TrEMBL record, chain A:
Keyword field: Iron, Iron-sulfur, Metal-binding, S-adenosyl-L-methionine
InterPro entries: Aldolase_TIM (IPR013785), DNA_rSAM_put (IPR023874), Elp3/MiaA/NifB-like_rSAM (IPR006638), Endo/Exo/Phosphatase_dom_1 (IPR051675), rSAM (IPR007197), rSAM_sf (IPR058240), RuvA_2-like (IPR010994)
Domain annotation Elp3/MiaA/NifB-like radical SAM core: ranges: 59-286
Transmembrane segments annotated in the record for this chain: none
Cofactor: [4Fe-4S] cluster
Name recorded for this polypeptide: DNA modification/repair radical SAM protein
PANTHER family documented for this protein: ENDONUCLEASE/EXONUCLEASE/PHOSPHATASE FAMILY DOMAIN-CONTAINING PROTEIN 1, TYPE II SECRETION SYSTEM PROTEIN K
Length: 414, 269
């Protein structure tokens, strides 16, 4: 085969990485390159430098070191039995590409993962070398996310954490049985063991920094994971329960969901249809409800459909919860505590905070609320304002129909 | 009638000093004309501020200053007057900054929000092109902001690209960094910036490859990367073709599926 050019390799190795949902570059330590010979900065919120026509933010150079793999995970385009074209970057090539993109302000940094070649340790070593070289040879101060290989030597994971802002280990599938069937060479116990190990390294690092300012940082943006949705039979209730237990046990920053996507040269054991993209979106919304709105996983489960165990696709899970708990509403916008306002469908965290501030100065009328929020139409049935009191919700049989968006907008592809 | 002459469209210090003095003197917002640069004398003539020996100190909440710092960079010619009107009201109603339902505060907050978005988009969408001369590199970008944000935004590029030599050229002003000092120059034209960079082909290759044609969502892309930015983004020329090809490509992938019978487990999804 003719030698691949850098551009061809980049196209193959970016194509192989695009099924990974994470592109976050936020939440690491603040740093810049003033007064040094290095390059780069991180200032709290990461920046999306471009958006692809799939609506996703492009913030990092997200590539694989190689898409060759000795494993055969069915959902994965890189699996051993896939007939996809293979390519491999050297560590040096990835370093140069990252710096060249960074200098032109295309990216916030690098998200590197890899198929497994030769052995887990060998592969992890190559990835660590990329991060090491960026940090030590080039004084790169931008963002680095390494996807780590659960079976790799803990000493390598330790090195990875010293150079990277974020580490991730994918749990891949929401259920143990799904993992066995679709990723037979992976071991759920070892994956969780590695996450537990990372959690303790991250916490030890934080402790050490509290005591000694000069202690090295370990993965200051924490760890995250990803689950594939719709490749096995797990329903939303099972997925949410799994995510919430991962958050609790391993202190994850984020659980990402990736709707199983048709891949070229698919394996025969995969489902024939991909799940609606809306399903992934609803799961992310439920994730927000848990992280920012004070719901627990059990309450989200109460918003799922009793028969399918899944969140409704036509309305968002917060509205679904509200419709199942009509007695909780309406709430008085001039009196209700923050927690109660956060449960009003259509009221976001910022709007609630503005309401709390503004109501110290005036009795809020419906008009005032309209100015503080984006859509008053959806809110009205759930709120009492100085000049407004809705019908009791129990009396509105058609409420769901009135608040749901037109059905054909759900998913253009299913 | 008072006329205040500000030195530049983003002259926050000048606005602040004048506003403080006018407010202590109780000057009505309707009696002030705010002007930028040495615009010719107009129908109001030149009435200077009474120079109070030491302008009486009065404090304003931090939230007002934050808002003013952003809003003043807006291209709306009313911004100075609106901010002054807000300042005057704020002196009468100290809690005003928390009353997000107040119409004037909302209007000023909307200006500030537009400016902050513009600042953010500049950080995102500036694209440097490398120019090589005598073995040294300079990275040059052409950018067209909506508001007067360039000077206020320079710090970000200095912190991030401290060891590089770079220039950002815009229609109103240019800024240059030589790894030590920041300097300013007059506005420029697109043709003053380099018209290409070999690395852009790699970036375009990346942009096309990272896009997942199975999940076309152009609305989401357009709301964050509106068309007005496209002409200065090297990757944007690919967008129409990527969209056009997307549905066809997904159809091909589904057609290539093997046709084994479904198992019980699979059909559950
Ligand atoms: S180990 Fe990773 S790269 Fe290899 S087949 Fe499995 S998911 Fe794909």
């Amino acid at each position: 085969m003719a030698q691949l050019t850098t551009r061809q390799k980049l196209e193959i190795l970016a194509d192989a990485a695009k099924y990974d949902a994470s592109c976050a570059s936020s939440g690491t330590t603040k740093r810049d390159s003033r007064g040094g010979k290095g390059i780069g900065s991180t200032e709290g919120m990461g920046i999306c430098h471009a958006y692809a026509p799939d609506g996703r933010c492009i913030s990092l150079l997200k590539i694989l070191l190689t898409n060759s793999c000795i494993f055969d995970c069915h959902y994965c385009i890189n699996r051993r039995s896939s007939d996809v074209r293979r390519a491999r970057f050297t560590a040096r090539e990835v370093v140069d590409l990252t710096l060249n993109f960074y200098r032109r302000n295309y990216i916030e940094g690098l998200f590197l993962s890899s198929g497994i070649i030769r052995s887990s340790d060998y592969t992890m070593e190559q990835m660590v070398e990329v991060a090491r070289s960026l940090r030590q040879d080039h004084h790169f101060r931008g963002y680095i996310h390494l996807k780590t290989i659960p079976d790799a030597d803990p000493a390598l994971l330790h090195q990875a954490g010293l150079h990277a802002d974020r580490l991730s280990i994918n749990v891949e599938l929401p259920t143990e049985s799904g993992l066995k069937r679709l990723a037979p060479e992976k071991d759920g116990g070892r994956i969780e063991g590695a996450m537990r190990h990372l959690r303790s390294e991250i916490e030890d690092g934080q402790d050490a920094r509290r005591k000694y300012k000069s202690a090295p940082r370990f993965a200051p943006a924490g760890q995250s994971t990803q689950m594939i949705i719709g490749a096995d039979a797990a329903d939303d209730r099972a997925i949410i329960a799994r995510a919430s237990s991962l958050y609790d046990r391993h202190r994850l920053r984020r659980v990402y969901y990736s709707a199983f996507s048709p891949i070229p040269s698919p394996s025969a054991v995969l489902p024939l249809r991909r799940p609606p993209l809306m399903r992934e979106h609803r799961l992310y919304q439920s994730d927000w409800m848990i992280r920012f709105y004070g719901y627990d996983a059990g309450e989200i489960a109460a918003a799922t459909d009793a028969a399918t165990g899944c969140l409704p696709l036509d309305i968002d899970p917060k509205l679904a919860w509200a419709l199942n708990h009509r007695a909780t509403f309406p709430v008085d916008v001039n009196r209700a505590p923050r927690e109660a306002l956060l449960r009003v469908p259509g009221l976001g965290v910022r709007a609630v905070d503005r309401i709390l501030l503004s109501r110290r100065h005036r009795r809020l009328r419906l008009d005032d609320v309209a100015r503080l929020t984006t859509s008053i139409r959806k809110l009205r049935p759930f709120l009492i304002a100085a000049d407004w009191r809705p019908l009791a919700l129990a009396d509105c049989a058609d409420l769901r129909a009135r608040l749901a968006p037109p059905a054909q907008q759900l998913d253009l592809f299913t | 009638m008072h006329r205040v002459l500000l030195t530049a469209p983003d002259d926050i210090d000048g606005w602040r000093a004048s506003a403080r003095q006018l407010a202590t003197q109780g000057v009505d917002p309707a009696d002030i004309v705010w002007q930028v640069g040495d615009a010719p004398d107009d129908l109001f003539g030149n009435i200077d501020l009474e120079q109070a020996a030491t302008p009486a100190a009065f404090s304003v909440p931090r939230a007002f200053l934050d808002l003013a710092e952003s809003a003043i960079l807006h291209r709306d010619p009313q911004r100075f007057a609106l901010l002054y009107a807000l300042l005057v009201q704020l002196r009468a109603r100290p809690g005003l900054m928390q009353d997000r339902a107040d119409p004037l505060l909302r209007r000023v907050a909307a200006l500030a929000k537009a400016v902050r978005r513009d600042i953010h988009k500049m950080r995102a969408f500036v694209r440097f092109r490398e120019m090589k001369a005598d073995g040294a590199s300079r990275f040059v970008a052409w950018f067209e902001p909506d508001h007067h944000i360039v000077r206020a935004n320079a710090g970000f590029f200095v912190r991030r690209f401290a060891s590089m030599h770079w220039s950002i050229l815009t229609p109103e002003i240019s800024i240059h960094w030589d790894s030590q000092t920041l300097s300013e120059g007059p506005g420029a034209q697109r043709s003053d910036a380099p018209d290409g960079d070999p690395v852009e082909a790699l970036w375009q290759g990346y942009y096309a490859a990272i896009f997942n044609p199975a999940r076309l969502k152009t609305g989401a892309m357009l709301s964050e990367m509106p068309k007005k930015y496209w002409r200065n983004l090297p990757e944007a020329v690919l967008i129409p073709d990527l969209i056009a090809g997307a549905q066809a490509r997904e159809a091909v992938m589904i057609a290539r599926r093997p046709t084994l019978p479904k198992t019980q487990d699979d059909s559950a999804t």
